[in-house]
Amino acid sequence: NSVFDHVVRAPEDPILGVTVAYNKDASPVKLNLGVGAYRTEEGKPLVLNVVRRAEQMLVNNSSRVKEYLPIVGLADFNKLSAKLILGADSPAVQENRVTTVQCLSGTGSLRVGAEFLARHYHQRTIYIPQPTWGNHLKIFGLAGLSVKTYRYFCPSTRGLNFQGLLEDLGSAPSGAIVLLHACAHNPTGVDPTPQQWEQIRQLMRSKALLPFFDSAYQGFASGNLDIDAQPIRMFVADGGECFVAQSYAKNMGLYGERVGALSIVCRSADVASRVESQLKLVIRPMYSNPPIHGASIVAMILKDRNMFQEWTIELKAMADRIISMRQKLFDALRSRGTPGDWSHIIKQIGMFTFTGLNSEQVAFMTKEYHIYMTSDGRISMAGLSSRTVPHLADAIHAAVT
Ligand SMILES: Cc1ncc(COP(=O)(O)O)c(CN[C@@H](CCC(=O)O)C(=O)O)c1O
């Protein structure tokens, strides 16, 4: 018998497991609204034209080799990623106070940051929003941090519980780490207003709370890269320190290439360089050094003015299609006279709508209509098309009447 006979079967991941169930369904009308991955109006994954162009140029470059990258990754990619999120004119970048390391997409950036904090930061408590992306709890818990939550979503208004947020951060121990979604909060699709962000910033700085931004959707919420980075830039502008995890999975469609970056904004260039030296000790035994292909694509696009311009146009088109799906779903429910107030569908932003449907209603929609979505009622609007909206609207209508 095996030495692993005692190993029990683990449950499927709450998000990625939805796709596993979807793939097993033979129904011709099945709809995958689970994983936050963009789909076209034809329901197909999308490789951006600018990405294909960059990839072709890389392949045609016969002098390109496949040597190891440094532990911190591709230098051009790191510099350009910091500028993309912090702003080309960022004082922190100009004063060399930012260390950026290429990591395995957003998840890897969060994990490297968490491991660094567990080793080098005096406060081992991190506050994450309630609710938040399911993997956050495991990433920070496994790194050895003590994970607490702060109120974020108000079920009755399906909007932000701003008072609860302020109270919970106000009563956090000074110096605690706070995880903040930079834009397009997952799963709620609810973001603070700029004025509310300023109040959050003042409260956090007054208690020396350490901001850890998770930026997985820059450009996807508003369609504009700079607007979506504003909350991060407000914090960096005050001269304080912060962590930023960046993912290119969604906004460049590089899901499987695992391209991301962790930036740590420090008070001085000297601290930034010592922090970088310690980040290398976290990364080397974890995966040694990051993959070269995806980062080379991103660096080429960010570096070339025309390719960057082309990317912003394709990115806005994706964001706009998602917004149009919101309006279509809202209109479809209204035309059916579906009971309830569904205005949150057009008020929420980013990839997801937090519908407010409960797990029983979700199970009903999966069983009777072959709609696949996470059990918390989140739907990925990118999985919808004009053709499939009526089917979803029928399912929701049936679930709530
Ligand atoms: C807020 C947030 N942070 C980080 C990530 C990690 O993205 P990377 O692929 O590591 O760059 C996601 C992806 N969440 C999506 C995609 C599927 C998943 O990984 O759960 C989602 O919630 O459906 C996310 O929503």
Quick structural overview:
The protein is an alpha/beta fold and 401 residues long. The protein has helices at residues 16-24, 49-60, 75-86, 91-94, 105-120, 135-142, 162-170, 194-206, 225-237, 269-283, 292-303, 305-336, 344-347, 359-369, 389-400; strands at residues 31-32, 98-104, 125-130, 146-151, 153-154, 159-160, 177-181, 210-215, 242-247, 259-265, 352-354, 371-372, 378-380. The strands form four sheets. Strands 2-10-9-8-7-3-4 form a seven-stranded mixed beta sheet, sandwiched between helices. A two-stranded parallel sheet has the order 1-12. The chain has a two-stranded antiparallel ribbon with strand order 5-6.
Features:
binds ligand PGU, alpha/beta, 13 strands, 15 helices, seven-stranded mixed β-sheet, 14% strand, two-stranded parallel ribbon, 401 residues
Care to describe what's here?
Helices cover 45% and strands 14% of the residues. The protein is an alpha/beta fold and 401 residues long. Strands 2-10-9-8-7-3-4 form a 7-stranded mixed sheet, sandwiched between helices. Helix 5 crosses helix 10 and helix 14 crosses helix 15. The longest helix is centred in the C-terminal third of the chain and has 32 residues. The protein is globular. Bound molecules: ligand PGU.
